[in-house]
């Protein structure tokens, strides 16, 4: 259990973990049940950050500072996948060319627009007058749970890191990801449950969109599903019911 948490922590954040022997991507897949636990740790850090900056800065500034903390802790790992995906998926080119673009580390127009819109939505949501701070705990947990749940059974190329990760996912990881996501959703009441459901539908829709455009799912797509799920949760918590 401890090794799985260490693997998840090292894989999902900028925290360096000295894990011996070095885990394979298959083992990362088998350890994916711990992804939401890493999300819980991230959420607690965000709650503390929001509490500290909220007392000393205007809401817009505090929202931006919380998102900066979010990016720093994760190393911008999934944001990179989000931008790469939109550079590729939004391009009006052949499937083969989209795959080439996806492997290109340079930031294009569609990726830049996608990045700006995503960050703007997160900042605006956190800075909203009706925002419930509980979302800062729910969003990272659900985002990382959806990486597991929505990736299960995805099409992959048979080789590469994403293929090994998806192949390593077992029913235990998927079940625990659902349990932890729904559990934290329940603590936030009906809004939390709706947020979990919407995040799942959004992540699954994005995965299928990527499969239709690329024919497969890679690490960038999985990371993008995390970012999309987090943002959906934040937005649901802003809805005036």
Could you walk me through the main structural features you see in this protein, from its secondary elements to its overall organization?
By secondary structure, this protein is mainly α. It has one domain (2-236). The longest helix is centred in the C-terminal third of the chain and has 26 residues, at 189-214. The model has no long low-confidence stretch (mean pLDDT 91). It is 74% helix and 0% strand. The protein contains 12 helices and no strands.
Entry summary:
With about 240 residues, the protein is an all-alpha fold. It is about 75% helix and about 0% strand. It has one domain.
List the keywords.
74% helix; mainly alpha; globular; single chain
Q: Report the major sheet.
A: none
Distance between the termini: 40 Å
**Helix content range:** over 70%
Q: What is the CA-based Rg, rounded?
A: 17 Å
- Enumerate how many helices there are, as a single number: 12
